[in-house]
Amino acid sequence: MQNRESLREGRVRIPSGCAIAGIMDRSGSRHDGSDILKSIALMHDRGNGLGGGFAAYGIYPEYKDLYAFHIMYESRDARTETEAYLDKHFMSEKQERIPTESVGSIKNPPDIWRYFVAPHPMRLNMSGLDEFEYTMQHVFHVNGQIDGAFVASSGKNMGAFKGVGYPEDIGEFYRIQDYRAWAWTAHGRFPTNTPGWWGGAHPFTLLNWSVVHNGEISSYDTNRRYVEQFGYDCELQTDTEVITYLFDLLARRHGFSQEMAAHIMTASSWDDIDRMDPERAAFETALRTTYSSALVNGPFSVILGSDEGLLALNDRLKLRALMAAEKGSMVYLASEQAAIEVVCPDAENVRSIEGGVPFVVQLDEVARRKRGESAENTPSAKPFKHEVGVLPRRRKEA
Amino acid sequence: MLDYLLPRYKVERDRDLCVQCGVCERSCANEVHHVDPDLGRVVADHAACVNCQRCVVMCPTKAIAITKWPQVDSGSANWTLGYMQDIAKQAQTGAVLLSSMGNPEPYPIYWDHLLLNASQVTNPSIDPLREPMETRVLLGGRPGMLKVNEREHKLVSPMPPQIKLDVPLMFSAMSFGSISLNAQMSLAMAARELGTYFNTGEGGLHRDLEPYAANAIVQVASGRFGVDPHYLAAGAAIEIKIGQGAKPGIGGHLPGEKINAEVSRTRMIPQGTDAISPAPHHDIYSIEDLRQLIFSLKEATRYAKPVAVKIAAVHNAAAIASGMARAGADIIVVDGFRGGTGAAPKRIRDNVGIPIELALAAVDQRLRDEGIRSTVSLVAAGSMRSSADVVRAIALGADAVYCASAALIALGCHQCGDCSSGKCNWGIATQRPELTRRLNPEIAAERVVNLIRGWNHEIQEMMGGMGINAIDSLRGNRLMLRGVGLNEKELEILGVKYAGE
Predict the structure, then answer these.
(1) Partner of B35 at 20 to 30 A CA spacing, among A209, B283, B285, B416?
(2) Given an 8 Å threshold on Cβ–Cβ distance, is A222 in contact with B472?
(3) Is residue B101 part of a domain?
């Protein structure tokens, strides 16, 4: 079963049910991974042992200006090839095996390494791309072109720890209690198929984004074919992947706030728009029309992590559970209320996230900074790779 | 010269049921039926029958049925009766064979090889009776990205003009002249009631239709009939017609006898003269010329209306559509080879062009490969027979569809394919007052509204089954389709997986 590649994400589309959780300290103080572990462990029955993982923000303060690549290898050759590739395109400050603990239930883990790198300045300059785009394209290359290598995360001062198993076992395997982060998210997966592939576990990450998601979006192919126009190749065919790319396109490339990006993905209903005053209605209509293929449909609950904080989002009809609660500077999110109360019994403002209304938790310093910034979005001016390349894009369909 | 042509149909009359009331005689503009008092029965001129079925429907005792002429052919699978009859007709007249309505030949109908998806277990289907189910579509050009002020909820970059459809389909172009004013009026009234649009075709906008101009798409075609600043300003959108699915590469010809006083005034041509639309626009011999016409029309309407460009689905449709998008078209209309017509040379109708399903899939994919699909709207036309065809077209990549034949069938059309004779017994494709008055626009509009409302309910049910509550999420969602009975190349072009995959 382990090596049935034909059943992996990317070869087939695998619907999953899930548990998700997030814990964040708005003050930016860092906490170890024991609470998130307890929270996701309580929702054991929402997963089936075929995928679990965590994303953590603020764990590498000593390397905060470098991209931290977490890479999983299935073979020595894959590592050799990947490291040669990274050597060519990045300058590496440090590389090491990620420390792990052997856990009885975790079978055949891959070889997992981390690299702290900066883009090779000359190559970055010659590519004509900005730093993010450059890094993203090389991450895509490793994931898509190098057999047996998968970049689990590629952001700065953050990392994803994921694999095949129940999330509590995965957490123990990665010793997440040893890391201190200001934001944690977690995922316990219930895939319908049994790919047993570590790369397919969640959170899904790209640059500083991490996404944990519960649901099956019915707009998948509409969203996929929309983002693929702009150079995002959906290799894994998962909802989480396409949702991450939508956030990247809208928030990073088009310059919207994360909240506005989430609003575009769960746009106001036409009934609501028809009741708005004309100027507001024109605004919402323009968003819905321009970004109609970014509308995400079908049941989903999502926790998006980034260097700004967490964002929780439910589908417009609220077809998936997602609860939020606060205590002081702490914010808790989870598929089930009990998973919040198990780590914070006296949580306040316990409520469910409303359908289509983004719930935004920003670091205090980010919120302060944003208040002083212009409310107009500034699109990133740098071109996409396929716009500066000399070869035509390869045809993706069928 | 002796006419070698055989009748095509035979009128079967049940003598026991017939009461010789003469309704059939009065129903038939082709003068098939004749109540013969001397014989004491009703006789039929079978050769004149076109199988429009007006008499069948009108007969109060249901005594009439039309059957095929029972003549066997030669037994050859090659020299069929159809080909031999065509030869006999041309040997007689020396003329180009004329035909009407869509291509009837048994080419593959890809709609019938595409099956729809529904939710089971892993995500819920949505009940349209309980949850909002959005079928509204906006058509027009779009910027690739918007610039807004998020705090004030205001647009910073301007939004190009859009037209709003409450149902994802419009009525395709049929000119006054090719159809009766009553038929156009019926569609105009239905369009207003449904929150969608009818298309004037290349026949101008009759003054009686001006109250419905907000629901009109005004067409500019190669003959430029009826085009003046008032006409352009009146409609909700402008459509440049380059080609038509039923007759790609061919213009149009409305014979002088159909140019009565009203048609003459509306088309702005002298009464009784032939209205000839040239095959090409003589100011568009290339893509850059199209750009000039698009922008002339935009200038003339102060950039307040979206401009659509309609082409027939031909071999190179994908590249042409991409060029149209780059030339400034806001809406791209692709019309497949099964699309109808009031009159077309038979050999053109039956042999030129490609199926809309393949053309639509190829155009949508090409625009995506070019990264410009989200900047234009795409409308598919050319035989949408049911709500399921509409859903398939949108899942393949269309924003909306045009339909005409289905709407005409709702008005009474029985697809006899004799539109060009001008003797339409249903009052649709005719200008004869005694025939057009058979079509009451109010009743006819109600039939069309009923049809489209029914389709829209079905579309909502199918979307709900897929777990989709806004038609935006169906557009281009090819995972919702699976092919059956298709080869790999067909699947590749359609961009769909095989059933079971």
Answers:
(1) B416
(2) yes
(3) no
Q: For residue A398, what pLDDT band results from cuts at 50, 70 and 90?
A: very low
Pick among B477, B491, B494 to test the A interface (most A CBs inside 10 A): B477
Cβ-nearest to A298 among B153, B374, B467: B467
Closest alpha carbon within chain B to A18: B122
Q: Is residue B2 part of a domain?
A: no
pLDDT, one tens digit per residue, over B186-205 is 999 999 999 999 999 999 99
Q: pTM score, two decimals?
A: 0.93
Amino acid code (one letter) for B131: E
Task: Give the CATH number for residue B17.
Answer: 3.30.70.20
Q: How does residue A394 score in pLDDT terms, banded at 50, 70 and 90? A: low
Query: Residue B430: phi, psi to the nearest 5?
Result: -155, 160
Of A218, A293, A397, the CB nearest to B468: A218
Residue B248 lies in a domain: yes
The last residue of one of the domains, among B39, B62, B95, is B95
Domain that holds residue B467: 137-498
Question: Distance from A49 to chain B by nearest Cα, in Å?
Answer: 17
Q: Are residues B275 and B362 in the same domain?
A: yes
Residue A301, pLDDT > 90, answer yes
In this complex, the residue of B147, B473, B493 whose CB is nearest that of residue A218 is B473
* Contact criterion met (CB below 8 Å) for B337 and B350: no
Catalytic site residue from A8, A14, A18, A202: A18
Closest C-alpha among B86, B97, B88, B82 to residue B348: B97
Task: With beta carbons less than 8 A apart as the criterion, state whether A248 and A206 touch.
Answer: yes
- B23 with B162, same domain: the answer is no
Mean pLDDT in residue range B456-471: 97
* Amino acid occupying residue B22: G
**B397 and B259 co-located in one domain:** yes
Lookup: tokens for A208 = 């500083």
Tell me what pLDDT residue A14 has.
63
Let me know whether B154 and B77 are in one domain: no
Residue B449: how many other CB atoms lie within 10 Å: 18
State which residue of chain B sits closest to A191, comparing Cα positions: B122
**Could you tell me if B25 and B168 lie in one domain?**
no
Cβ B369–A257 below 8 Å, yes or no?
A: no
Say whether both B373 and B316 belong to one domain.
Answer: yes
CATH class of the domain comprising A17-388: alpha beta
Give me the CATH number covering residue B459.
Answer: 3.20.20.70
DSSP character string of B249-275:
T--EEE-GGG--HHHHHHHTS-TTS-E
**A18 among known catalytic residues:** yes
B132, part of any domain: no
Sheet bearing B481-483, strands edge to edge: B114-116, B481-483, B497-498
Residue B150: list chain A partners with CB under 8 A. Answer: 256-257, 259-260, 375-377
B226 and B86, same structural domain?
A: no
* Distance to chain B for A249, nearest Cα, Å: 10
Q: Give the torsion through C-alpha atoms of B481, B485, B490, B492, to 10 deg.
A: 50
How close, in Å, is residue B444 to chain A by CA atoms?
30
Number of domains in chain B: 2
Residue with tokens 């352009």: B232
Pairing of strands A323-327, A348-352: antiparallel
What are the beta bridge partners of residue A284? none
Same domain for B233 and B320, yes or no, is yes
pLDDT category at A195 given cuts 50, 70, 90 is low
Q: Which residues of A touch B155 (CB under 8 A)?
A: 282-283, 286
- Please tell me the predicted confidence (pLDDT) of residue A128: 85
Answer yes or no: are the C-beta atoms of A193 and A4 closer than 8 Å: no
Residue A108 token pair: 């055949």
From B95, B129, B146, give the residue that closes a domain: B95
Angle at the Cα of A147 (from A142 to A153), degrees rounded to 5?
40
Q: Do A377 and B151 touch (CB under 8 A)?
A: no
